[in-house]
Recover the amino acids of this structure.
């Protein structure tokens, strides 16, 4: 009996030690095993209330930041709408930051400023394709400025 | 013209053909026919509102060449050609050369 009782006591002691060691291990950052992991995951997935205050704040800030990004995206979408309004067949030109069109007075002599003629046709900036293979659409001197080119050689032609 | 246009493009220039009419209004079909008959691979345009003939009023009769600084839109050079089209290749070459000279400054 004593032996049995002693065995029981020894087993109980071992169990307590194991529990103590296990608790120590968790406290020191060792990964808990088995069901404990699942229980912990479930806990961490539950809600922000269980998190420390700083973590909750950080998460909230991050969310605000993302919302701001979405707001910026909306702006881009609005711009796309504007582009769509100009017509699908509008010739695509690089958007060089050229600023507003130079102010007048305008003229057509050397040293004078050419006015912002409103045109339509084919903007062919690479010169590799026949122009009629490109989209036909509205353009202007201001659009030609946006090609980013330095000088234009403008030639007047006619069929007569 | 294709070779000279390639030179201009490579140097940062842009050749723009503006088709105008004096005796009537120019149309897209006029432009298309003109581009096809000359196998053009350059920017080719007409008035957006042909009834106004604004491009003709501003730029003048055919075979007039303008070298325009696209940053300021100042006309650096204006060269008058021949309405008959005579010497058009010679004038093309000289105007392209003049534009290239400005681009390389």
């Amino acid at each position: 009996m004593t032996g049995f009782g002693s065995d029981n006591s020894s087993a109980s002691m071992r169990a307590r030690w194991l529990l103590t060691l296990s608790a120590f291990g968790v406290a020191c950052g060792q990964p808990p095993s088995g069901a404990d992991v699942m229980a912990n995951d479930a806990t961490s997935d539950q809600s922000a209330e269980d998190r420390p205050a700083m973590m909750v704040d950080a998460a909230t800030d991050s969310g605000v930041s993302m919302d701001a990004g979405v707001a910026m995206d909306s702006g881009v979408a609005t711009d796309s709408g504007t582009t769509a309004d100009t017509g699908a067949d509008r010739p695509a030109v690089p958007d060089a930051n050229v600023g507003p069109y130079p102010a007048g007075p305008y003229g057509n002599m050397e040293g004078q400023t050419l006015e912002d003629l409103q045109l339509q046709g084919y903007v062919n900036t690479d010169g590799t394709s026949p122009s009629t293979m490109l989209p036909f659409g509205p353009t202007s001197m201001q659009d030609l400025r946006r090609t980013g080119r330095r000088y234009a050689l403008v030639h007047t032609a006619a069929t007569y | 013209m294709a070779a000279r246009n390639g030179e201009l493009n490579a140097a940062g220039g842009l050749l723009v053909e503006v088709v105008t009419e004096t005796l009537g209004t120019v149309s897209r079909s006029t432009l298309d026919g003109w581009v096809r008959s000359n196998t053009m691979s350059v920017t080719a345009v007409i008035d957006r509102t042909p009834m106004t003939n604004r491009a003709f009023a501003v730029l003048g009769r055919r075979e007039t060449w303008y070298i325009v600084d696209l940053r300021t839109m100042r006309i650096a050079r204006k060269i008058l050609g021949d309405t008959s089209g005579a010497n058009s290749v010679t004038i093309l070459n000289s105007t392209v050369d003049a534009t290239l000279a400005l681009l390389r400054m």
Remarks:
- Residues 20 and 57 of chain B are 9 Å apart (CA to CA).
- The helical segments of chain B are 2-11, 28-37, 54-59, 88-103.
- Strands of chain B lie at 13-19, 43-47, 64-69, 75-80.
